[in-house]
Amino acid sequence: MNRPIRLISAVLLFSLAGCDSPELDPNISQAIGRCIYINGFSKNLECKEYLGSNWTAEAIADNCAAPVPGSDPGTYEPGLACDRNQILGECFVDPGTVEAATIVFPGEEGDSCNGLSMGCGFAGGEYVPAAACGGEDPLINDPGPAEPFIPFHQVCMDPLPGEPPGMGPDGQVCTWEAISGATEAGRSYTDYADCAPVLTQRPYWVADAHSSTDPNDPRYQEKSFQTEYAWATQEIEATACVCCHSLKDSPDTGPSGWHIGMAGLWTDGLDDDGLAVLAGWIDSTAFGAFEPQDNNGFHRTDIGLPTTDPERMRNFLEGELERRGLSPADFEGAQAFGGPLADQMFYEPTACTNGNGVDANGLINWSGGGIRYLYILEGDAESPGVPPNRNLPEGTIWHFDISPAQASLPSGVQYGELPEGATQVFPASGAPAALESGRTYYLYALMDIALPLTRCLFVAP
């Protein structure tokens, strides 16, 4: 197993909404929280991170009560990842699933490495040693609380000297600082927008491209291919894709997987599934998209790669898939791509427990810690998804957000009374509709985008 390089404070979502790499390492994700405990067999301190999208507060509480076989109950700390400053290794349990977890073994050089692999096997995981046990240490950036999702923001500025007037007011160029955002075609995204907010909206880590290109590859001599390749590359340069997938614009630590500027063809940096996602052969609608008219003409609906010409881009990407001997039939029945975002799209809520819901005093109660996003929806409404187009499903009754500059909100909000510092998203103005006694509603409370803490059905008192 290739050891991933982690930036632990990278944000929470697995995504392709702009054009994040579909070659996501399922072991890399910001923790929902951590459980600190003493292993009953080794008598050593261990830390377990909860990573998947299906971990409810109740499920985490049950798991942390017995985090591994033979352990005593642990202490759960929401919103924190395990400290990786001095570790012996990591154990990846059910990576890529909705109940993924990582067990971190603290320690330093000279401590015993014996039994860690076996212990990981007992937990049903795959062991990867750190440097102290003959492997490599992960690259970590603050292992503390997750950096909040920075909401999408549109910036407008004058065109660079020598560039034509923009399509915005007074000839300005207007660009969304968003993972699904794009500046005007033919311009460079990083000339007109900042990648810093984008990197809070999707996870970033350094990774090698899937494969390189043979210097004698005939595509280098195909004029038609080179024309389309140059156009597709220019399209990417205008999008927030470059924040992770450009040798020039990604963080100093390096790009993540496939990237423009790589020695070979960037299309070869994608594996088969990744290329199929970009071409629209595998569904990635869970990641959301702007309307083209609000995004400088860039589409991302039935195609994974944002573009001003979906048919032309699809033809180009399908041509690359066909070179590999692949067809849409090879991907029939493929699971919708998006990890926890896709899971949320298909989530079926059950009845609230432990007093969660709206009580007789009108207080909204949830479990698991502070939140930044709260929804009350009709009982049969779909689960909320990501902005800009999936975060307000039909049947929303009340929805508000908490600014990332403020502390998260504890349980116990009065229904219909907007908390201090919160921004009401729905309804656009005025109080939400009163809840009807005896009617079923859907409570959806999130620690942050894609990190639901409580999502359940309650009956209004």
What does this structure look like?
- By secondary structure, the protein is of the alpha+beta class.
- It folds into 3 domains: 33-133, no CATH class; 153-331, no CATH class; 347-459, no CATH class.
- Helix content is 16%, strand content 19%.
- The protein has a 6-stranded antiparallel beta sheet with strand order 3-1-2-5-4-6, covered by helices on one side. It has a 6-stranded mixed beta sheet with strand order 9-17-16-12-13-15, with no helix packed on it. The chain has a 3-stranded antiparallel beta sheet with strand order 10-11-14, with no helix packed on it.
- α7 runs antiparallel to α8 (310-323).
- The model is unreliable at 1-29 and 141-146 (pLDDT under 50).
Topology of this protein?
Layout: E1 33-38, E2 45-50, H1 57-64, E3 75-78, E4 87-93, E5 101-106, H2 116-122, E6 125-129, E7 153-157, E8 173-177, H3 189-192, H4 195-201, H5 223-237, H6 242-245, H7 272-279, H8 310-323, H9 340-345, E9 350-351, E10 357-358, E11 363-365, E12 373-378, E13 396-402, E14 413-414, E15 422-426, E16 440-448, E17 451-459
Parallel strand pairs: 9-17
Antiparallel strand pairs: 1-2, 1-3, 2-5, 4-5, 4-6, 7-8, 10-11, 11-14, 12-13, 12-16, 13-15, 16-17
Helix pairs in contact: 7-8
Major beta-sheet overview = 6 strands, antiparallel
Strand proportion, as a percent range, falls in 15-25%
Based on Cα principal axes, name the global outline: globular
Low-confidence stretches: 1-29, 141-146
Which secondary-structure class do the elements indicate? alpha+beta
Distance between the termini: 53 Å
Helix and strand run? EEHEEEHEEEHHHHHHHEEEEEEEEE
What percent of residues adopt helix (DSSP H or I)?
Answer: 10-25%
- Roughly how many Å is the radius of gyration? 23 Å
Total strands: the figure is 17
